[in-house]
């Protein structure tokens, strides 16, 4: 029995990075916040690069609760969207080269989002990882955790529910 | 969690004139300024703050609808302002938790206005409800409930 030779690693990386880049570039608010994403396989880490405009309390100083909530929600939606797009791109249903903001599938819509502020956000970079706890045809539940210096010391976490885009949109 | 080391921080100030403090409070917050928030009304535990539509805040490129995170930031700022203008003099506050329900997409191009009500205060916690609208005042775009820390001014020694 003959097996197909494995794909060249550069090609795989190029395809996956391209899919992620198109998703990130499509959403203006991600650029406004200064969020980028590190990818290891299908695992994403959101990175909020510190900027003085993200401050909510200049006296401490501390990050704005709204900036933290935004970072968490952006990371949750990206995790969910990338999970969907990953399947399309890896199975060849969507060709990565043909992806553009215009041809991108619709994004999930937030139904509700609950943020738990555990400690003050320091004026430095922050990181976040999201986990899709349930993904159905119509609804998804996503948990997201954010930290700064120490992965074990979360400074915020959130759970959100999302309406999934319909496939024929 | 300690009160001095609060989360989702807002600046506080001691002294007179809660309305003046609240206006300073908005003006002094860099992230609220970056979102171009404007204090519309404030007093007795109720705050109204608005934010214009801006292409940089869009979350869904196909519809031009503002990202939920920007609406969260508006709700959080408005909730904090409502706590700080509560009749019991408060020195500052931080968000403990905030839940937002997104009822519908805000219409692109329209200003979003949030109204928050700090409806109960204990020694340590302030409870807040908030709603937000675009120009259609009959149908809210989002609702929020939150708990905030209560940081009281330091007791002054009696003369």
From TrEMBL, chain A:
<dbReference type="InterPro" id="IPR029069">
    <property type="entry name" value="HotDog_dom_sf"/>
</dbReference>
<protein>
    <submittedName>
        <fullName>Acyl-coenzyme A thioesterase PaaI-like protein</fullName>
    </submittedName>
</protein>
<feature type="domain" description="Thioesterase">
    <location>
        <begin position="63"/>
        <end position="152"/>
    </location>
</feature>
<dbReference type="GO" id="GO:0016790">
    <property type="term" value="F:thiolester hydrolase activity"/>
</dbReference>
<dbReference type="InterPro" id="IPR006683">
    <property type="entry name" value="Thioestr_dom"/>
</dbReference>
<dbReference type="Pfam" id="PF03061">
    <property type="entry name" value="4HBT"/>
</dbReference>
From TrEMBL, chain B:
<protein>
    <submittedName>
        <fullName>Uncharacterized protein (TIGR00369 family)</fullName>
    </submittedName>
</protein>
<dbReference type="GO" id="GO:0061522">
    <property type="term" value="F:1,4-dihydroxy-2-naphthoyl-CoA thioesterase activity"/>
</dbReference>
<dbReference type="GO" id="GO:0005829">
    <property type="term" value="C:cytosol"/>
</dbReference>
<keyword id="KW-0378">Hydrolase</keyword>
<feature type="domain" description="Thioesterase">
    <location>
        <begin position="64"/>
        <end position="138"/>
    </location>
</feature>
<dbReference type="InterPro" id="IPR029069">
    <property type="entry name" value="HotDog_dom_sf"/>
</dbReference>
<dbReference type="InterPro" id="IPR006683">
    <property type="entry name" value="Thioestr_dom"/>
</dbReference>
<dbReference type="Pfam" id="PF03061">
    <property type="entry name" value="4HBT"/>
</dbReference>
<dbReference type="InterPro" id="IPR003736">
    <property type="entry name" value="PAAI_dom"/>
</dbReference>
């Amino acid at each position: 029995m003959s097996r197909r030779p494995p794909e060249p690693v550069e090609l795989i990386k190029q395809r996956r990075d391209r899919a992620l880049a198109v998703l990130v570039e499509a959403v203006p608010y991600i650029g406004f916040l200064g969020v980028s994403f590190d990818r290891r396989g299908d695992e994403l880490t959101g990175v909020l690069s510190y900027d003085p405009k993200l401050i909510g309390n200049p006296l401490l100083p501390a990050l704005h609760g709204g900036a933290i909530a935004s970072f968490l929600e952006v990371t949750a939606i990206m995790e969910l969207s990338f999970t969907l797009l990953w399947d399309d791109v890896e199975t060849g249903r969507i060709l990565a080269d043909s992806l553009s903001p215009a041809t991108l599938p619709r994004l999930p819509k937030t139904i509700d989002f609950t943020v738990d502020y555990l400690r003050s956000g320091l004026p430095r970079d922050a990181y976040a990882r999201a986990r899709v706890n349930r993904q159905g045809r119509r609804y998804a539940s996503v948990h997201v955790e954010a930290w700064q210096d120490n992965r074990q010391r979360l400074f915020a976490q959130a759970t959100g529910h999302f309406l999934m885009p319909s496939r024929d949109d | 969690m300690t009160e001095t080391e609060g989360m989702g921080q807002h600046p506080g100030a001691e002294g007179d004139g809660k309305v003046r403090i609240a206006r300073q409070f908005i003006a002094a917050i860099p992230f609220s300024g970056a979102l171009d928030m404007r204090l519309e009304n404030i007093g007795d535990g109720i705050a109204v703050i608005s934010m214009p539509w801006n292409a940089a805040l869009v979350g869904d490129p196909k519809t031009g609808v503002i990202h939920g995170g920007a609406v969260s930031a508006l709700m959080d700022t408005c909730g904090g302002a409502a706590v700080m203008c509560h009749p019991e003099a408060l020195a500052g506050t931080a968000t403990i938790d905030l839940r937002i329900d997104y009822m519908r997409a805000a219409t692109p191009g329209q200003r979003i206005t949030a109204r928050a009500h700090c409806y109960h205060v204990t020694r340590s916690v302030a409870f807040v409800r908030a709603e937000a609208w675009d120009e259609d005042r009959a149908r809210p775009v989002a609702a929020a409930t939150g708990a905030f820390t209560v940081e009281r001014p330091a007791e002054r020694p009696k003369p």
